[in-house]
Structure formats: structure tokens, C-alpha cells
Amino acid sequence: MYKLNSYLLNKLSLSVLPLLLTAFLSSSAYALKDDIEKPVYINADSVLFNKSKGQGVYEGNVSIVQGSLDIRAAKIEINAPGGEIKKITASGSPVKFKQKMDDGKLAQGQANRVVYLVESKRIVLDGNASLKQNNDNFSSNHIEYSIANGELKAGNKKTPGKSRVKAVFFPTKKKK
């Protein structure tokens, strides 16, 4: 389980966020293996930790870099009641993230709001969500991904026609 303290909040902001990229993209491409071993650099206009509430909030031009992973958001909130991280929320107009994959390709994405639900191992992208690797693109107003079972859901059944899913995938060239 993830435990909350001031040092860990600094480190943890990124330890689960790399999943944002690798979870959505081709199963044959993974984030650089050594990124997780690199130092985490966080810059923000302000930070507020409230140990009794189990909350940490980075606000204002938040920049998080760990190896090739780069996340930009207006605000990142960590919710950890009782010392266990339950949810990480990044918001902005938009939240942008990118990371180099082991195959050398750059994966990138964005959404107005990105939520990582730790217990259910779900990532939710809301508002102008898009994911891109090379020429392949996937976009929708709402995207959910389950790390636990690999299921991806996009679109919104409550407002059919208003949240279309768009995907463009190019065939990969196999070596002979």
C-alpha cells in the first residue's frame, strides 16, 4: 500500500502517473524501464500538505519530470485519508503528458482532467482526451482504462453523439 508522508508525496506524484502513458498505448511498447529509477523533479507555484486530512496539493504551473516522463498540469491533488493514497487528480487546460517508450517512440496525451483511482487501478481522462504515438491517434471526451484487466472504455453512453470516439491506427511493418 502507498503510505502518505511529506517525502513520499513528492516521490509518489510520479510513481503511479507513468501508467497514464503505458496503459493506453500498444502492449508492445513500454515506458523506458529506467525512468522509475530516476529522480523526480516537481515544480509548482505552491504546495499544501495537510497530514490530518491526508491531502497534498501542488498548484500553479505544475511540472513533474522523471527521466523521459514529463507531466504538465495546473493542479495535482493527492487524496490519502488514513495515510493510504486513494486518488491522484491532475487538472488543467489541458493536462499534458509524454514519455519515451523502450522502442524509442514518443507517447503523448492530454485531457482537461486525469484521475488515477489507486484501489480499483483505473485511470480516467475527461474533457478533450487524446492519446498519440507516432501517427496512431485515439481521442474521445471520456476515456477510462483498467490497469487490472486491460479494458479500455471511451465515449459516453449518457450523451450519445456528443462524445464520439475517434481512432486512427496504422499497420506496423513486420521485419522479414
Structure overview:
The protein has 176 residues and is mainly beta. The chain is 9% helix and 49% strand. It contains 2 helices and 10 strands; from the N terminus they run ααββββββββββ. Strands 1, 2, 3, 4, 5, 6, 7, 8, 9 and 10 form a 10-stranded antiparallel beta sheet that branches. A hairpin with a 5-residue loop joins strand 8 and strand 9.
Low-pLDDT runs: 1-29
Instruction: Please identify which CATH superfamily we are dealing with.
Output: Lipopolysaccharide (LPS) transport protein A like domain
Overall mean confidence score, pLDDT = 76
**Overall number of domains:** 1
CATH architecture: Sandwich
Summarize the structure.
The chain has 2 helices and 10 strands. The protein has 176 residues and is mainly beta. Strands 1, 2, 3, 4, 5, 6, 7, 8, 9 and 10 form a 10-stranded antiparallel β-sheet that branches.
Question: What distinguishing features does this structure have?
Answer:
176 residues, mainly beta, lipopolysaccharide transport protein A fold, ten-stranded antiparallel β-sheet, 2 helices, 10 strands, 49% strand, disordered N terminus
Can you lay out the helices and strands and say which pair or pack?
Blueprint: H1 6-15, H2 19-24, E1 40-43, E2 46-50, E3 55-66, E4 69-79, E5 87-100, E6 106-117, E7 122-133, E8 136-146, E9 152-154, E10 166-168
Antiparallel strand pairs: 1-3, 2-3, 3-4, 4-5, 5-6, 6-7, 7-8, 8-9, 8-10
